[in-house]
Amino acid sequence: MSELMTRSGQKAFGALAIAAVAGLVSACGSGGDSTASAAPPSAAPTSAAASSASSAAPTPQGAPLAGKTIVIDPGHNGGNASHPEIINKKVNVINAMKPCNTTGTATNDDYSEHAFTWDVSLRLAKILRAKGAKVVLTRKNDKGVGPCVDERAKIANRAHADASLAIHGDGAPASGHGFHIIEPAVLKGHNEKVVPQSKRLGMDLRNAFHQGTGIPYSTYLGKNGIDVRSDLGGLNVATVPAVFIEVGNMRNAGDAAKMKSAAGRQKMAEALAQGFVKFLS
Ligand SMILES: [Zn+2]
What we know:
- By secondary structure, the protein is α/β, with parallel strands linked by helices.
- The protein has a single domain, classed as Aminopeptidase.
- It contains 9 helices and 8 strands.
- A hairpin with a 4-residue loop joins β2 (90-92) and β3.
- It is globular.
- It binds zinc ion.
């Protein structure tokens, strides 16, 4: 979930977290850099068979993402709710100081956003690696705290990522449903050069996700599945092509059912992988 939605997601974390999250603003981030993608017109994207990632000289057909670095940023973390002293610390997100991180939201029956984003991220990383990409995750497990939103973006910057995606689930009013991509706004003197690439990444991921999952564009935010924001540290700090996806509204029964389904999450990961292939080839 992103900042505007924080309040609606908090009650799921119970009394322990209430004091911690009062006043919390969410922010999530990541980044990805791009050297121009000069790849041959991609051959048929391979099925995610397990065997392709080993060779130093992969064939283009077998490894359409060979030589590409992709950063996947699973939103939030399992230990955030119990460590307000860490996640409430302010960090510099270029145009503001914002809390390090937030707890994220959950479905009404308590399937947490951090667990969801972690699961989809692992599935996506596996598929991308099978296609030859080097994949960096911004956190190592689902039990830790943070990292802060600025650090998530810096991980992508330092990796010189060709593309970066932060994965989230939203906590909007229950009537809204569908997914949306969040693209970075231009911050003068900081990210002008990379924003056009982020926009292209966002379009490719939007199209692939829509086509691959059948999930409709958000009914409550953005336009045609795309929103642009200047208040997310994970986007602001990025100097590589970076977008967020809010995969669905965890407070909406229909979206929640899809997000709780392992088969649904696999389909989401496969669709996102196709978006990366499109963007990077
Ligand atoms: Zn989130």
